[in-house]
């Protein structure tokens, strides 16, 4: 089931009617901001940290022509093979060819938004490979045949009972209770442990690439990333080029921001830096390691006015703080990226034609920008995307014409005051007794869900003018 | 309990214009600013002398102009109490937020220039709306270039939201006459005022000192009410869901009045409260501060 | 290697400032290191222990290597009624006085189903309540991840205040992997319910080795907002 991003409104209405899931999202919307706030307060100079990391990342993006080749050289010196992919399809082909070269049959995969973006799993499965997602949330939605609803907690939309049914159905383990989340986690642990031990290839993403030493950084709480990166004989790190940071200490600064913004932790349980393949005396570790660096329009974004978006660290804070996301749920966005960051990124990575509804899925309340660890001015970027939409005449013609008309009338104060006076006096006469309207033509968007408060007897400008005349 | 009706075609034309204005106005544009120290900082020496009164130009804002003139009249009363000479430029219309927030920057630029030309002679520009003041201080400089950009910045430095101006510049402290009892009030922080202008303590401080209001804070006052300008009409179900959440929290606070500084948010909340049968008086803060409880609350009948 | 590479690099050059290396380095050096987290206590050991506890770890202190072996023995007995332990080929671990606790680890790589693994951290980070191990012969990655319990010794002298200090200290060694561990394996993917032991260890136990005041654990517990939980349970002698 593929949902188009332009179906956002209809899909959000469906999501609002799913009472239990809506309740879960509202819990998330209360709980996660509270955790983040506490972590930020405990940190101390969080604003200073945010500014520092934004400056570092800005510097890294401004000089990506220097840092990306530096990372590449260091990574090669560490024994890695480095590949580039212009498109998702190229990444998928590269990964498949590595797997096929090693006659791989099973792949253990850590959480990776980049491979969600390229739909790598389908590509590998079509070629007959078995792909096992090992992040518990990703595993759940893979088993259920669903897409992620949250960039950090992909299965947060699924109530406990659904996951229980899913496990009872998918794991051939005989009659059992699975009475609570610990029991379900225990079962998934034992099932996935076998997959880790028998996988031929591990695929993980990266939270950062460090130019000065060629390491990649991966943060997880489950430890599944480290298992994927260390147990199978082949490791493939799939990531994008804007993840490059100059120094190891920059990665530390990034982690300070990232985990506090994501879960309110001061650091995630497993924060790991990988340099490359097994060395001479090592008794475990992959024999061969690859980096696949994806562009997929990021170089276009780098050259555009939306460059700030490349600072996004995929923490999910903007989703947790967005009342529109909480209402609509992740699936309504029709994209692997949801919430405010998704509404910016999806049009940039696909096209505005395919997703021009998303930039309007925002009240510009600014809570996302307030908590964004990367200081991305998300509401400004969303508004700028609406500007692009307006210029390419993609959205509703009625709104566009209304806005033009409104602007034109507003530039003619006398006409404006004449028309608004007429309208207001009419509405007042009709609405004063009840105080408002439950239905107004041309305002059905408003009155569908709320009454329209009736105006007072006349516009201020008319009343004031009259008063001034009387005073004289 | 509310009534429905159909307009005749001639009324429809007028109404379409009105509705366009109604629905489009006063969105909440935003650009993050550092939270500044927003404690009132008015020293005795800054108290206006008879000779140095503040020359203020009132930007009525189009929503208040059209739907709730009492906000503007009460704003004038408060500013005059605080020692200001208030001028209302008669050629003012709209700051251009509706077009701006739907992405029509081209249509916004002439309105921004018109606004600057209308108001730049003022010492201070005051608006009873955080989103309108924020439009001028934060967004005009963003869309204007060259000399107009400079003029926008110059005007931005002299533009204030009402409660911000009253507490930070004019230092309105003492109730000049005995206010009527405003009862228990919960305050909704409108997004643009809160995040663009750092308005949070000022209205509460004024409610305390001027009306001795019984302030009852609701949970998560910083979450959007779902208005969002055109958002509320483009995505009504999502918007209503947010308004309902906000009203639930306001009710849970135990306050009898829900106050705020932006009429757009308040109309959204009052309209949703009516639709859901929630009993809570929704009022603009200017009305409470001026002790004007005779005017029916937003969405209430004006005939008893 | 491919056309993709030159294409992408050309596009990046097109969007970049293309500054000379010296200028890039100068700009970078001006950026500094950024602020770190406020420590919960000025004493490094207490701050470290507090943050370990906040990270859902458990702690012991040992003033000598002999005492460290004893507390590890007690821990194993308490949780597993066992003396089985696996440890990497780390000379510091091999040199511990194991006889004092009647223990002898198996040295090598942990296997699935192993009860407990012991690591000797290369550093402890007070800022985050983390321990650092390096993958390789001394500490195979599997030892951090496959057993039910992960026990880590960290020497008081190896504590650092800031997270980036620990990374900078390892720059010259260039280990294959650097594992900064800050708690037992955890997941909240099912109904936002936190469960430990998602894939890796269910418990994470840190033994701080060195001369610290005896009451620093109680101090840390108070700062972490914990009542005397595990530490207060009477332990059988090893």
- The CATH topology name of the largest domain in chain A reads Rossmann fold
Shape of chain C: globular
Q: H/E series of chain C, N to C?
A: HHHEHEHEEEEHEEHEEEEH
Q: Compute the number of helices of chain A.
A: 23
Based on secondary structure, the structural category of chain A is: alpha/beta
Please state the structural category of chain C: alpha/beta
Summarize the structure.
With 472 residues, chain A is an alpha/beta fold.
Task: Note the topology.
The complex is a heterotrimer of chains A (472), B (304) and C (238).
Chain A: H1 8-17, H2 19-43, H3 46-62, H4 64-77, E1 81-85, H5 88-101, E2 106-109, H6 113-118, H7 120-126, E3 130-133, H8 136-144, H9 160-170, H10 181-198, E4 201-204, E5 208-210, E6 215-220, H11 224-230, E7 234-240, E8 244-245, H12 248-262, E9 270-274, E10 288-294, H13 298-302, H14 317-320, H15 323-328, H16 339-349, H17 352-355, H18 367-371, H19 378-391, H20 397-410, H21 413-431, E11 436-437, H22 444-447, E12 452-453, H23 460-471
Parallel strand pairs in A: 1-10, 2-3, 2-4, 4-7, 5-8, 7-10
Antiparallel strand pairs in A: 5-6, 6-9, 11-12
Helix pairs in contact in A: 3-12, 9-10, 16-19
Chain B: H1 9-24, E1 54-58, H2 62-67, H3 69-81, E2 84-87, H4 97-101, H5 105-119, E3 124-127, H6 130-143, H7 146-156, E4 159-161, H8 162-169, E5 184-188, H9 191-197, H10 201-211, E6 214-215, H11 231-234, H12 236-252, E7 257-260, H13 263-276, E8 281-284, H14 285-289
Parallel strand pairs in B: 1-2, 1-3, 3-4, 5-6, 5-7, 7-8
Helix pairs in contact in B: 5-7, 6-7, 6-9, 8-10, 12-13
Chain C: H1 3-15, H2 21-29, H3 44-54, E1 58-62, H4 65-80, E2 86-87, H5 91-94, E3 106-107, E4 116-120, E5 123-125, E6 130-135, H6 141-145, E7 149-155, E8 159-160, H7 163-170, E9 177-181, E10 186-187, E11 195-196, E12 203-209, H8 216-223
Parallel strand pairs in C: 1-12, 2-3, 2-4, 4-7, 5-8, 7-12
Antiparallel strand pairs in C: 5-6, 6-9, 10-11
Helix pairs in contact in C: 3-8
Structure description:
The complex is a heterotrimer of chains A (472), B (304) and C (238). Chain A has 472 residues and is α/β, with parallel strands linked by helices. Chain A has 3 domains: 123 residues, Fumarate Reductase Iron-sulfur Protein, Chain B, domain 2, CATH 1.10.1060; 252 residues, NagB/RpiA/CoA transferase-like (Rossmann fold, 3-Layer(aba) Sandwich); 68 residues, no CATH class. Chain A contains 23 helices and 12 strands. In chain A, strand 5 and strand 6 form a beta hairpin. Chain B folds into 2 domains: 119 residues, Glutathione S-transferase Yfyf (Class Pi), Chain A, domain 2; 106 residues, Rossmann fold (3-Layer(aba) Sandwich), CATH 3.40.50. Helices cover 48% and strands 10% of the residues of chain B. Chain B is built from 14 helices and 8 strands. In chain B, strands 2-1-3-4 form a 4-stranded parallel β-sheet, with helices on both faces. A 4-stranded parallel β-sheet of chain B has the order 6-5-7-8, with helices on both faces. The longest helix of chain B has 17 residues. Chain B is globular. The N terminus of chain B is likely disordered. In chain C, helix 5 links the parallel strand 2 and strand 3. Chain C has one domain: Rossmann fold (3-Layer(aba) Sandwich). With 238 residues, chain C is of the alpha/beta class. In chain C, helix 3 crosses helix 8. In chain C, strands 1-12-7-4-2-3 form a 6-stranded parallel β-sheet, with helices on both faces. A 4-stranded mixed β-sheet of chain C has the order 8-5-6-9. A two-stranded antiparallel sheet of chain C has the order 10-11. At the A-B interface, helix 1, helix 15, helix 18, helix 19 and helix 20 of A face helix 1, helix 2, helix 3, helix 4 and helix 5 of B.
